[in-house]
Description:
Strand content: over 45%
Number of strands: 5
Distance between the termini: 13 Å
Low-confidence stretches: none
Helix content: under 10%
Number of helices: 0
Largest sheet: 5 strands, antiparallel
Shape: elongated
Mean pLDDT: 95
Amino acid sequence: xxxxxxxxxxxxxxxxxxxxxxxxxxxxxxxxxxxxxxxxxxxxxxxxxxxx
Length: 52
């Protein structure tokens, strides 16, 4: 799930049981404004999710 915050603020990225972002946060990550995409990993499988 990708939820952009209003007025061009950050974006919330959530994926149950996934590891998200550069620090591989579990379940959710707050992507800084201007981030174009984020990597989500489930086990050994990674995918890139566009944020715009």
